[in-house]
């Protein structure tokens, strides 16, 4: 299981140091939540901030765009240093065009589905994707409860991906902690985003190790 700490729960006044801390604590990816106050009811940061903190780690930047028109901003996020760019199927941009744009920028595309979106919606795009992110909370805020009823979607996507793109990674985001990660692992999840569970722990290293140890 790969662990991607969600910077949404970090101390933004020292975001670079927080990224360094996660790097040293054994994080696999840095998960950066971009929110526009329109697609979701919260605002975080954009490409200029990501560019500023890129130098604090060599680990992949997993940039989750919770914005209405992702296609318009793909180049900005690519130039800022994103490695994986995930965007919502529910956004206003054309899905195939956005995937193609991410690839044309030399980055790895991921498609995200909100809790009310069915797994089968991503099937037509699976062969072109690096990752599918299944939200296990309504996007917008950290610290919410894990929606275990999203896990059947992980199984459906895994089964379909095995036919067309067995390398596809499935990520879940929201409410991941010691009480929930094993369920995600058993459902076939490859990457878990964790905000509260890692950033609010006394030791991020211990928190990440404990989460990984539960996945067997
Ligand atoms: O994208 C989101 C929320 O929209 C997540 O990345 C949360 O930030 C995860 O936080 P926890 O549920 O782990 O506290």
Description:
The structure is a single chain. The protein has 216 residues and is α/β, with parallel strands linked by helices. It has a single domain, classed as Aldolase class I (TIM Barrel, Alpha-Beta Barrel). The chain is built from eight helices and eight strands. Strands 1-8-7-6-5-4-3-2 form an eight-stranded parallel β-sheet. The longest helix has 14 residues. The radius of gyration is 16 Å and the shape is globular. Bound molecules: 5-O-phosphono-D-xylulose (5SP). Belongs to the ribulose-phosphate 3-epimerase family. It is an enzyme of class 5 (isomerase). Pathway: Carbohydrate degradation.
Describe the protein's topology.
Blueprint: E1 2-5, H1 15-24, E2 30-35, H2 47-53, E3 61-66, H3 74-80, E4 84-88, H4 95-104, E5 108-113, E6 131-135, H5 151-164, E7 169-173, H6 181-187, E8 191-194, H7 196-199, H8 204-213
Parallel strand pairs: 1-8, 2-3, 3-4, 4-5, 5-6, 6-7, 7-8
Helix pairs in contact: 2-3
The structure holds 5-O-phosphono-D-xylulose.
Active site: 33, 173
Function: Catalyzes the reversible epimerization of D-ribulose 5-phosphate to D-xylulose 5-phosphate.
Cofactor: Mn(2+); Fe(2+); Co(2+); a divalent metal cation
Structure at a glance:
By secondary structure, this protein is an alpha/beta fold. It is 32% helix and 19% strand.
Mean pLDDT across residues: 98
- What is the subunit arrangement here? single chain
The value of Rg in angstroms is 16 Å
**What is the domain tally?**
1
The assigned structural class equals alpha/beta
Q: Assign an overall shape.
A: globular
């Amino acid at each position: 299981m790969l662990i991607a700490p969600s910077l949404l729960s970090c101390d933004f006044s020292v975001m670079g140091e927080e990224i360094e801390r996660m790097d040293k604590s054994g994080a696999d990816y840095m998960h950066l939540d971009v929110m526009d106050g329109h697609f979701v009811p919260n605002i975080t940061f954009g490409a200029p901030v990501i560019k500023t903190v890129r130098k604090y780690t060599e680990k992949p930047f997993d940039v989750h765009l919770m914005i209405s028109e992702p296609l318009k901003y793909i180049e900005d996020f690519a130039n800022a240093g994103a490695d994986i760019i995930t965007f919502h199927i529910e956004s206003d941009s054309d899905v195939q065009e956005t995937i193609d744009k991410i690839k044309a920028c030399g980055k790895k595309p991921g498609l995200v589905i909100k809790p009310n979106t069915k797994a089968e919606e991503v099937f037509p795009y699976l062969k072109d994707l690096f990752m599918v992110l299944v939200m296990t909370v309504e996007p917008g805020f950290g610290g919410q409860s894990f929606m275990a009823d999203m896990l059947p979607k992980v199984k459906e996507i895994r089964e379909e991906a095995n036919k067309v793109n067995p390398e596809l990674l499935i990520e879940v985001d929201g409410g991941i902690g010691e009480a929930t990660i094993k369920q995600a692992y058993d459902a076939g999840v490859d990457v878990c985003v964790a905000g509260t569970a890692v950033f609010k722990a006394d030791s991020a290293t211990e928190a990440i190790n404990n989460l990984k140890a539960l996945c067997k």
